[in-house]
Design brief:
Blueprint lengths: L1 H21 L3 H12 L12 H18 L3 H6 L1 H26 L4 H12 L5 H5 L8 H30 L8 H30 L2 H21 L4 H14 L13 H29 L1 H10 L4 H44 L4 H7 L13 H23 L29 H9 L5 H8 L14 H30 L4 H21 L9 H16 L5 H16 L7
C-alpha cells in the first residue's frame, strides 16, 4: 500500500507537469489518464479508509483556501455564502432524495437521502484556486470560495443523519437542526482556540521554519479535536484558518523577533506545493476507481444499465438544482434592485410634482399640520435616504460590479445587509461551477456495510456507483468547459481591476507616510513601521484589508530582497 500510494502521487505529479506544459487542465487530464490506467490487467485496487481521506486530505486543502481568503470578504458575502453553502445543499438533498426514491424505490427513502447527501456538496476548492487563471471575476471567486468552506459541513451532517436513519443507530443529538447547531458552534469555538494557541506559540518562537511547521499542524489539530467532541472538523479548520490569517492585522510587541515577514514568505511558497500534491492525488485516486466501480456493479445483483441511467439522471438533477437555486436567489436580488431603481427614479423625477398639480393640485395646509405637498416631499426624502445605501451596495465597482469604496475604505459604503446582485454572465458562471469531488467519494466510501440488524446496507453499491458517476461526470462536463465558458462570456473586469489597483495605491500611500523622511530604507524598523501603519489604517477603516494584505506582501518581498508578485 505504501509503495502504491507513493507511485500514485509521483505519477499524478508527472501528469500535472505534462498538462501544465501543454496548457491543459491538470485535473481533467489526471482523471482521464488514471481511469484508463485502472484497466491495466493485474493492477491492484487503491482503496483508502474514508476517514483517512476526510482527516488527512480535506483539512489542509480547506485550511490553505481559508488562509488565502479574506475574512472581511467572507462576512460581506455571508448571505450569498450561506445561501449556496447551506441552503443549496439542503435543497439539492431534498430534490435528489425524493427523485431517487421515486426512480429506485428498492433503496428506500432514507437510502435515497443518503445518496442525495453524498452528491449534494460541490467541491470548489480546486476551481477557485485557479479562478483568476481561467478568467473568473474576483467577486465570483469570493462567493465560490466561501461556499466551499461551509457546504461540506452541512452535507456531512445531513449524511450522518440519513445513515443513522437507515442503520437504526442513534446520533449524538437526534434532532438534525440541533445536531448541526452543536457541530457548528463547538467547531467554531475549537477552531478559534486552536488558532489562538498556535499564534501565541509562534510569536514566541522567532524561527520561520518552526513557525511554518506549526502552521502545517493547525488543520489536523483543529479537525481531530473537533471530531473528538462530535463537532464539525470542517468548520473548526475554517475557523482556525481565519483566526491565523487575521493575526496579521495585529501589531506585534516591539520585543518580538522580526521574523514574521520571513515566515509569511516561506508559507506563501509552502502551501501551493501542499495544494498541488493533494489535488493531484485526489484526481488520480478518483480516476483509478473507475474499473473497480464497474466491477463491483457487475458482481452485484443490481442491473448495470439501470444504475448507470440513475447516475445520469442524478447528474442532471444536481446540475439543474444549482441553476434553479442560483437564478432564483440572485434573480430576486436583481428584481429588488430594479424596483428600488424605479422608485428612486420616480422620486427624483422633476415632472412628478407638475403631474400631481394637474391632477388636482396640492392640498392647503391646515394650521399645525403639514400639507400634502410637504408630506410628499418629506416622504420622498426619507425614501431616498432608505434606498440609496441599498443601491450603492447592490451596484458593483464602476456602476454595477462589486461596490465602490465608501468612507473608511469599506466596500460599497455599507458592509451589512447589502443586496448581492450578479450580472447574467456571473449567474451563469456560478451556476456552472458545481463540480463534485473527493468529499462525495469519501462519504460514499464511508457508508456502513450492514445496518443494526446485521442485514446489508440497502442500495450501497447503487449509491457508490451513482456518486462516482456524479463526481466524475461533473468534473469532466463542467470542469472541462468552465474555462471556455469564462472566455466566451468575456466578463469585463476592468472596473474591478481598477478598483483593486486604487486600493493598493491608497495602502502604499499610507505605508509611505509612516516612513516619510527616513533614510534607513534597509533596516527592519523601516519596514515594520510601514506594516504597523497598514494595520492602523485597516483598524481605522481608511483602507481595505485586502489592499493592506497585498502591500504587506510587497513589503515582505522587498525586505527579503525578492521581486513581489501580485495576481
Amino acid at each position: 500500500m505504501d509503495v502504491q500510494l507513493l507511485l500514485v502521487m509521483t505519477g499524478a505529479l508527472i501528469i500535472a507537469a505534462f498538462a501544465h506544459l501543454r496548457g491543459l487542465q491538470a485535473g481533467i487530464v489526471t482523471v482521464t489518464l488514471a481511469a484508463a490506467i485502472s484497466f491495466i490487467p493485474g493492477l491492484p485496487r487503491l482503496e483508502l479508509d474514508p476517514e483517512l481521506i476526510l482527516g488527512v486530505v480535506i483539512p489542509p486543502l480547506l485550511y490553505s483556501a481559508t488562509l488565502n481568503f479574506s475574512f472581511f470578504a467572507f462576512v460581506k458575502n455571508l448571505r450569498s455564502i450561506l445561501g449556496l453553502g447551506v441552503g443549496l445543499v439542503v435543497f439539492t438533498t431534498v430534490v435528489v432524495g425524493f427523485l431517487t426514491s421515486w426512480i429506485a424505490p428498492e433503496i428506500g427513502l432514507a437510502g435515497a437521502f443518503v445518496l442525495a447527501a453524498v452528491v449534494s456538496p460541490p467541491d470548489s476548492v480546486t476551481t477557485v484556486s485557479h479562478g483568476r487563471e481561467i478568467g473568473l471575476p474576483r467577486r465570483t471567486i469570493s462567493i465560490l470560495t466561501g461556499e466551499s468552506l461551509v457546504n461540506d459541513a452541512a452535507a456531512l451532517t445531513l449524511f450522518a443523519v440519513a445513515v443513522a436513519a437507515v442503520t437504526g443507530d442513534s446520533e449524538f443529538i437526534e434532532n438534525p437542526f440541533l445536531l448541526f447547531g452543536w457541530e457548528a458552534l463547538i467547531g467554531l469555538i475549537l477552531g478559534v482556540v486552536v488558532g489562538r494557541v498556535v499564534i501565541a506559540v509562534r510569536r514566541r518562537v522567532g524561527n520561520p521554519t518552526i513557525e511554518s511547521g506549526l502552521n502545517l499542524l493547525v488543520p489536523f489539530l483543529a479537525y481531530f479535536a473537533a471530531e473528538q467532541l462530535h463537532a464539525s472538523g470542517i468548520i473548526a479548520v475554517v475557523a482556525a484558518g481565519f483566526t491565523v490569517s487575521m493575526s496579521h492585522f495585529t501589531v506585534r510587541p516591539s520585543t518580538a523577533p522580526s521574523t514574521a515577514y520571513r515566515t509569511r514568505l516561506q508559507e506563501a511558497a509552502l502551501w501551493p506545493v501542499v495544494d498541488l500534491i493533494l489535488e493531484a492525488f485526489v484526481f488520480a485516486y478518483m480516476g483509478l476507481q473507475f474499473r473497480f466501480v464497474l466491477e463491483d456493479l457487475a458482481e452485484s445483483s443490481t442491473p448495470t444499465w439501470s444504475t448507470i441511467g440513475l447516475g445520469l439522471i442524478v447528474l442532471l438533477a444536481v446540475i439543474l438544482c444549482r441553476f434553479a437555486w442560483v437564478y432564483f436567489s440572485y434573480g430576486r436580488a436583481q428584481l429588488a434592485l430594479l424596483i428600488y431603481a424605479k422608485r428612486m427614479a420616480a422620486s427624483l423625477d422633476p415632472t412628478a410634482a407638475r403631474r400631481q398639480r394637474r391632477r388636482g393640485g396640492p392640498a392647503q395646509p391646515v394650521e399645525g399640520r403639514p400639507g400634502r405637498a410637504d408630506r410628499s416631499q418629506r416622504s420622498d426624502s426619507v425614501q431616498r435616504l432608505r434606498m440609496q445605501p441599498r443601491l450603492d451596495s447592490a451596484t458593483g465597482p464602476g456602476g454595477g460590479r462589486g461596490g465602490r469604496r465608501g468612507p473608511g475604505g469599506r466596500q460599497g459604503g455599507r458592509d451589512r445587509g447589502h443586496i448581492t446582485v450578479l450580472t447574467p454572465a456571473e449567474n451563469l458562471l456560478v451556476s456552472w461551477t458545481g463540480m463534485r469531488g473527493i468529499i462525495t467519494l469519501a462519504a460514499a466510501g464511508g457508508i456502513p456495510l450492514t445496518i443494526a440488524s446485521g442485514a446489508p446496507f440497502p442500495g450501497r453499491t447503487i449509491i457508490q456507483t451513482v456518486a462516482f458517476i456524479v463526481a466524475v461526470g461533473t468534473l469532466l462536463l463542467q470542469g472541462s468547459t468552465l474555462p471556455l465558458l469564462a472566455k466566451t462570456l468575456r466578463i469585463d473586469t476592468t472596473a474591478e481591476d481598477a478598483e483593486v489597483e486604487e486600493g493598493r495605491a491608497e495602502a502604499r500611500a499610507a505605508a509611505a507616510a509612516a516612513v516619510a523622511g527616513r533614510e534607513d530604507r534597509t533596516s527592519g524598523e523601516y519596514f515594520d513601521l510601514q506594516r504597523a501603519a497598514l494595520t492602523q489604517a485597516v483598524v481605522e477603516r481608511r483602507i481595505s484589508p485586502a489592499s493592506a494584505g497585498d502591500v504587506r506582501h510587497e513589503l515582505d518581498a522587498l525586505q527579503a530582497g525578492v521581486t513581489p508578485l501580485l495576481d
